[in-house]
Specification:
4-stranded antiparallel sheet; 42% helix; single chain; 5-stranded antiparallel sheet; alpha+beta; Glutaredoxin; Immunoglobulin-like; 22 strands
Length: 688
């Protein structure tokens, strides 16, 4: 006999989320001593606070006051593909002896998966103190040094910044600067020298104007659509499908007139939609208590493992080995209330009873929706959109069949096909479980589910589903398959085709990208075959503006300045999913690719290091290759985020408006084509 397990999934999730919300206090008061060196571009204000501990020992706290939505990273080195670690150094002075190690003190520490770098990191929001212990022989003399940091939000990172400090322990005062306090050994270059502001570039007058494309936020509509599809799938399960003709007949035949029966059925459908919308309200409350909770939920490795286990349980339940149900007392109470109350209240309790009775089939689908919808960007509204779509799909049949009761005669009869739907959903739950385990693996850097192993497991699940659809394997509640129905046969063929599509993902060949699944498997670099490459996709590229201009003059091709970063995930996404398109790759061949890494830490020769005074009067030490390219980007193109793509003629004239992260392949192709049109315009002007 089939076992039944009471399983109040939504209640369990609310408890988990409440637990996640614990320990988050309100933001502390801002330290008024903290200053920003560049009020327009900086996202962090800093203060250097010397405090006497005991005897000659002092504590130097480097306090960061961080803008909302932005983060500063730990001093830990997370590898070449990770964020730039914060670091704090002191100048070598006779009266200063610095202890090893940096303490990190913050009430707003976030440890786990970072969406920008797609790995587990430790970062800080709102406020953090980086503490160094120092022994001072003379407190009347100043203490000087430097610190470096990177700041990011959930979409982009600013180039790493270097700040120089001078602190006076006796008075507790400090000074900050973007250049060393002793500039005697550095040459000074100013904006008027035109080194970092290309005179040939006029942002207001490109050869061909770019398209003004309004940013589209379709995530809520997409989740609504996915929720609607999930609701349609739930309709085809044994828990819901048989209820449709019974409930509609009850309303249409049990009322004094057909019009009233139709109104009652429509009201019943409306209450079903309302009930599923109500399910999302607790998450709006949680979001108002702690606005970071949805990011913590979606990136927490242990919650991802929790989802993995739950989805395995869902899959086994759908396979028919046990049934997930809510406590029978809940269902009985709702049923009694539906009978007790008449009118609108009674109809509401009838709708609630349906939601509870059908939970064994709808619960896993709702669980998938819940786990996938909660992200930092949309938060509870994404869940509301998904729940709304799900509830609408469940409510529509009751309204439509009440309006057109003759349609009931066209409904297929309940039968073994309903169990087939459940088993197919079980295989889908297995695939989703693997995805959540992969999330945890990426976050913790366990290296358990590299890309090829992930795809291999999906292939195994796909083969299992195909064998089931072709009737070669059965589960406890399946009847023997004597003849394959056309729909089941077609699904089996589609599943087999999907498995064949996955196979190249196991190789290191040109088809391993699996662009249709972009975002589901681990990234390409998380692979057994991963190899570093100097230029993306085997393209020929240059790594300085001077080399690019020489190559462009020699070949006659225009340049594409690719402002990028070693740790820029959106740059890698563009290269793997957009540049890799054959049509776009062919268009890129028309340009001299100049990849400028703004986080390149290689130091310039000592004689080339200099102080730059920007057009806004800000001073900056140009010490590394990355400093050069970040300054050129900021001064000439007024941008500090990566990626940024700029198309220039061999003479350095702007061909079209620059663009940033552009995942829309067609839009990016138009950008490259506009550049070639710009070349034609300039050539026509030159020939006049």
């Amino acid at each position: 006999m089939m076992r039944k397990f009471p399983f109040a999934w939504p209640l369990a999730m609310v408890i988990v989320l409440l637990f996640s919300a614990c320990g988050k206090g309100p933001r502390g008061e801002r330290d008024e001593r903290a200053v920003k060196l560049d009020a327009e571009q900086d996202r962090v204000a800093w203060a250097v606070i010397p405090e006497l501990v005991d005897g000659d020992q002092w504590k130097f706290s480097f306090r960061a006051e961080i803008d909302p939505g932005w983060s500063v990273y730990s001093t830990e080195n997370f590898g070449d593909l990770g964020p730039w670690p914060s670091s704090f150094g002191f100048d070598t002075l006779a009266h200063v002896r610095v202890s090893e190690g940096t303490q990190e003190v913050s009430e707003h520490t976030s440890e786990g998966h970072d969406p920008v770098f797609d790995m587990a990191v430790r970062k800080f929001k709102e406020q953090v103190d980086f503490v160094r212990m120092v022994d001072l022989a003379d407190t009347e003399l100043p203490v000087s040094g430097w610190f470096e940091y990177m700041t990011c939000n959930d979409e982009m990172c600013l180039p790493p910044a270097t700040v120089y400090f001078m602190a006076n322990p006796d008075s507790g005062t400090f000074q900050l600067s973007t250049v060393p306090f002793d500039l005697s050994k550095y040459a000074v270059v100013s904006c008027s020298d035109g080194v970092y502001r290309l005179a040939t570039v006029n942002l207001d007058e490109p050869a061909v104007k770019g398209e003004r494309v309004l940013e589209k936020n379709s995530s809520l509509w997409m989740l609504f659509f996915l929720g609607f599809v999930g609701g349609l799938l739930a309709l085809l399960t044994p828990c819901v499908f048989p209820m449709i003709p019974l409930t509609v007949s009850f309303f249409t035949k049990g009322s004094e007139d057909r019009a009233k029966g139709m109104r009652n059925a429509l009201t019943y459908g409306g209450f079903i939609l309302l009930i599923y919308l109500i399910f999302s309200i607790p998450f709006h409350v949680l979001g108002s208590v702690n606005e970071e909770i949805f990011n913590e939920i979606s990136t927490n490795p242990w919650l991802n493992i929790f989802f993995f286990v739950i989805f395995i349980v869902f899959a086994i339940s759908f396979f028919g080995y046990f049934e997930i149900t809510l406590p029978s007392s809940w269902v009985n109470r709702m049923d009694q209330n539906a009978s007790k109350f008449g009118g609108m209240i009674g109809i509401f309790f009838m709708a609630l009873t349906l939601a509870l009775v059908s939970f064994s089939c709808t619960g896993p689908i709702l669980g998938s929706l819940l786990a996938g919808a909660l992200t930092a960007e949309g938060g509870a509204w994404q869940l509301t959109a998904g729940m709304g779509g799900f509830g609408l799909a469940l409510a529509l049949p009751f309204a439509l069949f009440a309006m057109f009761p003759q349609w009931l005669n066209s409904l297929p009869r309940s039968g073994s096909w309903l169990n087939t739907v459940k088993v197919v959903l079980g295989f889908i739950e297995l695939a989703l479980a693997i995805k959540f385990l992969s999330n945890a693996d990426l976050v913790m850097n366990w290296g358990l589910l590299k890309r090829e192993l992930f795809i291999g497991l999906w292939i195994v699940v796909g083969i299992g589903l195909a064998l089931y659809l072709f009737g070669l394997i059965r589960f406890p509640h399946d009847s023997p398959v004597k003849k394959l129905p056309p729909v089941r046969l077609g699904l089996g063929v589609l599943t087999t085709a999907f498995v064949l599509y996955l196979l190249p993902g196991l190789t290191n060949g040109p088809w391993r990208n699996l662009k249709l699944l972009s975002g589901f498997p681990p990234p390409l670099f998380y692979s057994f075959y991963h190899q570093e490459s100097e230029c993306p996709l085997g393209l020929v590229c240059h790594h300085s503006i001077e080399d690019g201009m020489r190559a462009s003059a020699a070949s006659g091709k225009p340049m594409m300045l690719d402002y990028t970063g070693w740790a820029c995930v959106n740059c890698r996404k563009m290269e793997e999913t957009v540049w890799a398109e054959p049509d776009i790759l062919a268009l890129l061949q028309n340009y001299e690719l100049v990849s400028l890494y703004v986080d390149d830490k290689r130091e310039l020769p000592a004689e080339e290091q200099h102080v730059y005074i920007s057009c806004r009067g800000q001073k900056k030490l140009i010490r590394t290759e990355g400093n050069r390219w970040a300054t050129l980007q900021s001064e000439t193109f007024g941008s500090v985020s990566q990626p940024l793509y700029v198309l220039l003629s061999p003479e350095g004239k702007l061909l079209t408006d620059p663009v940033g992260y552009t995942p829309d392949k067609a839009e990016y192709a138009r950008f490259l084509q506009r550049g070639m049109e710009g070349m034609q315009v300039l050539q026509a002007q030159a020939s006049r």
